[in-house]
Design goal:
alpha+beta; two-stranded antiparallel sheet; 1 helix; 2 strands
Length: 62
């Protein structure tokens, strides 16, 4: 059985088009903004975090 992980916030610095961004997540978080504003890159950062963090869910990734 897999363990559920909840991401409460995400801080990203110098990742793709994102200079410095902090996102606080609620039960439902919707990204709204103009084209090329970085919405998809936040999802890409979460995907990268997911692939890295599978070994230890209590490790802070810097």
């Amino acid at each position: 059985m897999s363990e559920q992980v909840t991401v409460k916030s995400l801080a990203v610095k110098n990742f793709l088009s994102l200079d410095e961004v902090k996102v606080n997540f609620g039960k439902l978080t919707i990204f709204v903004g103009p084209n090329a504003s970085g919405k998809s890159n936040i999802i890409k950062a979460l995907t990268l975090l997911s692939s890295i963090g599978k070994a230890d869910h209590n490790t802070k990734i810097q």
